[in-house]
Amino acid sequence: MNGSEFSWSEFFDMGGYAVFVWTSYGLALGIVLVNIVSPLIERKRVVKRVKRAIARDRHASQANNSQTG
Amino acid sequence: MIKKIWAWIQRFSSPKHFYAISGKLIPWFAVPAFLLGIYGLYMGLFVAPTDYQQGESYRIIFIHVPAAWMSMFIYIVMAISAAIGLIWQIKLADMIAAASAPIGAWFTFLALVTGSLWGKPMWGAYWVWDARLTSELILLFLYFGYMALQSSIEDQRTADKASGLLVIVGVVNIPIIHYSVEWWNTLHQGATVAKFDKPSMHIDMLIPLLVMALAAKLFYAAIVLMRARNEVLYRERNRQWVRDLVKKL
Q1: Which residues pair with B55 in a beta bridge?
Q2: Which of B44, B130, B131, B205 is the most exposed place for a label (fewest CB within 10 A)?
Q3: Separation CA B20–CA B12 (nearest Å)
Q4: Which residues are within 8 A (CB) of B46 and not within 5 positions of it... i.e. 6 or more apart?
Q5: Nearest residue of A to residue B60 by CA position?
Q6: Which of B49, B64, B227 lies closest to A39 in CB terms?
Q7: Residue B37 half-sphere exposure, CB side, CA atoms within 13 Å?
Q8: Of B132, B135, B114, whose CA–CA distance to B57 is shortest?
């Protein structure tokens, strides 16, 4: 891109290699986004599972108390 | 003295301590990663000159090479973590290894696909079974193998041992990938940056490449901490501190 004047259409054309270059950059962006979003989703899932485990244990201990008491 | 160091290591590698520290560290990696990524993209797409042989297609290098470096770097981090977990029974190390695997697999996948997208216009083929490409594909399968072992073994300690051993044995593949372009005849070009004499690359191309590589490393650091925190919460779910913390969320 060291021509005399900058042109966006020339930029997007990538010297005829547009498909290869932009697919690469697009895929990279997509993978970056997936890697950011997936731990956030995973965190919600883990928190939910731990909360369920806490509730289950509370039920179990209550059941034990009523049996012994 | 050694006892003191050991106590210090154990304190700082305790999942609870790690969870608190890592939460504060993430933005210190994420923000520079973002800024360097933007700067690297700008330099790579707008400032770096056209290659005299490959035209504009060479710009794939700013994605492909950092991704390929990360695929190997993360694997080495994983292997070292797995070894620490196996030898010294440090739980946090196993969590770091487990958190690294999917990120490493994604970078390996990205390196393979962008390589193929670069190969088509330059070599005339999306794929050839040459040493560099094949050994990189094996790296992807090693990541998959690790993740499959992790998720298929119910008992966490057994899972960490089995998958850790796989990763450590698989390290043999890393020098094979690196030296494949020297040991075998290959279509893949040789090293242009990581060699002992001066890098054979124009400085305006080298700078965005190194900036993107650094951005990728910082990105990995931020994401691996996020993932390792999830591992801590899940694996330590029977601990009181995790339960107290989760109740507040």
Answers
A1: B51
A2: B130
A3: 10
A4: A1, A11
A5: A21
A6: B227
A7: 18
A8: B114
List chain A residues with CB under 8 Å of B227. Answer: 39, 42
A42/B243 Cβ within 8 A = no
Give how far Cα B236 sits from Cα of A18, A55, B15, B19, B233, Å. Answer: 49, 16, 8, 11, 5
A8: closest chain B residue by CA? B46
Position of tokens 């890393």? B174
B64 touches chain A (CB under 8 A): yes
- Residue whose token pair is 């890592």: B22
Q: Are B129 and B85 in contact (CB under 8 A)?
A: no
Give the mutation candidate from A1, A23, A24, A40 for the B interface (greatest B CB count, under 10 A).
A24
- By the 8 A CB rule, do B99 and B220 touch? no
For every one of its 249 residues, what pLDDT tens digit does chain B have, with 9 covering 90 and above?
888 888 888 877 899 999 999 999 999 999 999 999 999 999 999 999 999 889 999 999 999 999 999 999 999 999 999 999 999 999 999 999 999 999 999 999 999 999 999 999 999 999 999 899 999 999 999 999 999 999 999 999 999 999 999 999 999 999 999 999 888 877 888 877 765 566 678 889 999 999 999 999 999 999 999 999 999 999 999 999 999 999 888
